[in-house]
Amino acid sequence: EPEVTQTPSHQVTQMGQEVILRCVPISNHLYFYWYRQILGQKVEFLVSFYNNEISEKSEIFDDQFSVERPDGSNFTLKIRSTKLEDSAMYFCASRTAGYGYTFGSGTRLTVV
Amino acid sequence: GIQVEQSPPDLILQEGANSTLRCNFSDSVNNLQWFHQNPWGQLINLFYIPSGTKQNGRLSATTVATERYSLLYISSSQTTDSGVYFCAGVSGNKLTFGGGTRVLVKP
């Protein structure tokens, strides 16, 4: 069964550093997403991406965040200057029209 | 705004027992998905179910769209069923998660 692949599975970074989280969505999917889950809390929407542009973003997704689909297969989330409160599990998801969302296994980000 | 509410928040089961998890959702939700988050944090897709009933092994789900709720049934529970079950409502191009039901199945 096709999978959404995320790398790395764990990342530890110093406060103030930039991080890039990487995702390879399912190849024929057209819609891409990032979600995050702070430990013990619900899964929260960050951003949706379609046709090479952001289609919707949440209040969480401020100027510190950006997304990119640099080469037609990868989908990245960049956090420019990480804060302690950015520590969370970050999930990438993709879908095609009329079908459900498929999530990757997540990247656990720890900011110290 | 989009509302997705789950109950109960916690459930403890003896292995072999059956259970029902509920998800209520607001008018703006036009589709529904159920996930299982395993102890390693992975979100496993269970059902994509705008209406009607679907079954997959010991799990089944029913969505009654006109009454804005969905039910997830776990039959003959096993310890591997432990984890958090999320329902999530689709509205537009966004999935909104409920708060989850944490399930612990004891041997």
User: What is the chain-wise order of helices and strands of chain B?
Assistant: EEEEEEEEEEE
Named CATH topology of chain B: Immunoglobulin-like
Structural class of chain B: mainly beta
The CATH class of chain B turns out to be Mainly Beta
Percentage of residues in DSSP E strands of chain A = over 45%
> Considering DSSP H and I runs of 4 or more, what fraction of the residues of chain B is helical?
under 10%
Name of the CATH homologous superfamily of chain B? Immunoglobulins
User: What pattern of helices and strands is seen along the backbone of chain A?
Assistant: EEEEEEEEEEE
SS-derived structural category of chain A: mainly beta
- Number of discrete helical segments of chain B: 0
- Domain count of chain B: the total is 1
CATH superfamily heading of chain A: Immunoglobulins
CATH topology of chain A: Immunoglobulin-like
User: Could you give the count of β-strands of chain A?
Assistant: 11
Number of strands of chain B: 11
- The structural domain count of chain A equals 1
Largest interface: A-B, 23 and 19 residues
Largest sheet of chain B: 6 strands, mixed
**CA(first)-CA(last) distance of chain A:** 36 Å
Low-confidence stretches of chain B: none
